[in-house]
Amino acid sequence: MDAMISFSNSKCLVTFLLIIVLTITNCGEAKGRELQESNTLFIRSSCSSTTYPKLCYTSLVKHAAFIQTNPVLLTGTALNITLSSAKTTSADMTTMARSRGMGAREVAAMQDCVEVLADSVEQLRKSIGEMSHLRTSNFEMTMSDVQTWVSAALTDDTTCTDGFQETAVAGDVKTAVRGRIVGVAQLTSNALALINQLANSHA
Ligand SMILES: *[C@@H]1O[C@H](CO)[C@@H](O)[C@H](O)[C@H]1NC(C)=O
């Protein structure tokens, strides 16, 4: 009888402990999900004021765990994504300009574009560098510089797409290249909107 009781007690104890462990795990997961939800909600609502909110959201949501609900990290990440896209696009255009079957006019148009994109990359680099020194004491000056530089980067992107449009480059090449640069321009435009939003948040 004694043996029976202690057996059922230990079974009871195991069940009891198991329930506690499951409860803790479950609550931990629920808490994690809640945090994740508030992070993605923050990105969605911040992106709603940009010109391309869907692109803004899909490009940033991968970094939700890093950004959390911090507008400076959000803006910095948007700038980094834009820079990396501009660099890749510029490199791909250089490769395309060297590929066989490209006419002299196509090559010239691409080289012009690569030059303009190089300036855009420089403006974005400067902005990212300056953002890393953002403090309360230099907030207004930093944000004003970054607004100027990212606006210049956006102008470069537009110059490139317009210039390309006017050339007599073959249709499919033109469409492919334009599409890539338009993508960079849209990311740049979104980054600028987030920068403006951040700048205004302290006004
Ligand atoms: C952006 O990139 C720079 C340079 O790689 C890095 O120092 C910085 O931490 C990045 N910023 C964010 C918000 O990820």
From TrEMBL:
The keyword Signal applies. The keyword Signal applies. InterPro entries: Invertase/methylesterase_inhib (IPR035513), Pectinesterase_inhib_dom (IPR006501), PME_Inhibitor (IPR051955). Residues 38-194 form the Pectinesterase inhibitor domain. Pfam families: PMEI (PF04043). CDD domains: PMEI-like_3 (cd15798). Residues 1-32 form the signal peptide. It comes from the Eukaryota. Keywords: Signal. Belongs to the PMEI family. This is Pectinesterase inhibitor domain-containing protein. It comes from Stylosanthes scabra.
